[in-house]
Amino acid sequence: MKIRYIFYIIGGTFMIWLAFDVLKSKLSSRDRKANYIVGLTMGLTNPFQITWWITSGLFMIQEFGLLIVPGFFGGIIIWITLFPFIVNRYGKGLSNIIRVISFIILIAFGIYILLKGFFLISHL
To answer: Which residues cross the membrane (predicted)?
Structure first.
């Protein structure tokens, strides 16, 4: 059995667990600025984020060339400014909607990855 297929099962299960964890989460009691600084710090020092750039990020640059970098970072800049602005502006009213949409996306991808793993393992 190929070991990477087991990672499908582990990853899918983890995403499903995250989906339910997101569904149970509550808004932070810290002020907006503190929340943003904590989130930014966690994002910049996250080992998964650093690993992604070393692996997938370099692969993306190799595959699409250096011209992808400005567009990709432009999208990131829009995301990290527009999304927090919308959440801060309309956060109280949107928090349940954001939580449910995040749950649906995570559960869908988790189930997909889990089923793909079981399918790959069953066809060895």
So the answer is: 6-23, 35-54, 66-88, 100-121
